[in-house]
Design a protein that fits this description.
Blueprint (H helix, E strand, L loop, with lengths): L26 H18 L3 E5 L5 H8 L7 E6 L2 H4 L8 E4 L17 E6 L6 H15 L5 E7 L4 H13 L9 H10 L2 E15 H8 L3 H15 L6 E4 L2 E15 L2
Parallel strand pairs: 1-2, 1-4, 2-3, 4-5
Antiparallel strand pairs: 5-8, 6-8, 7-8
Length: 260
Amino acid sequence: MSRHPGEETGVHGTGWAQVHGGYFSDPEVARPLVEAVCRLWGESHPEVIVDLGGGTGFLLSQLRKAGIGDATAMVDIDCSDAQLGMLHGSGLSSVRGSVDRFRRAEVVSAGKKALFAMRSVLHYAGEGGLTPLLAHLRAQAEEGERWVHQTACFEREEDAACLNALYRKMRTGKWYPTVAGLRDRLISAGWQVDEVRPAPTLLLESGELGRRYGLTQADLRRIREEMAAEFGAKRDVFRLVPDGFQADLHYRIFVCRAIS
């Protein structure tokens, strides 16, 4: 993956709950994804739910609170020791590994049915790594198994281009597709897309982005000036503010099925 999640350890562990205004630790923000996973769990009755890149185990803990009982095993795959360390005493299982290299046998026992979940991970693969990652994930799923993921993507090409330019200027390898483009890649990789639904937008603030990615004030000023020149002072997904800039990261929830 072009920028490994494990490289951002400065915000891992106890500090993760506060990142981006607490977006990734807010039960109300997570509710649409939790509801989607619970609905599929009720339909398919998997023995195991695997959260791919599950970090601190927040999503799995919300699934437990939503009524998925101990009879369903829950496994968190993540590459960060600091993130997985937050699972201690939670009753959830963990596997240290990367979503682009793990093997099904590491997380799902033979003969068991799995339901896969994921939130805000696919952009780490970068543009060139996305299709191989989708194919790898399909190879770990058995035909008919479901995968529910909340992924950052944009309806309009120009909005995706704007955010991708911003992340390039921040020296990350992250990349965001359009909704239609991601759907096409999923289908090509062997995933049937049964449903696409909206999820809450994430507000990005330049100061916090600077702390997350190790950017200096000079870096942020340069990025602000370059983005204003290339994309204008005000757009649907990028805005100048007196002391920096803001951007909106749009999310969609994809309900997918592994097909032959």
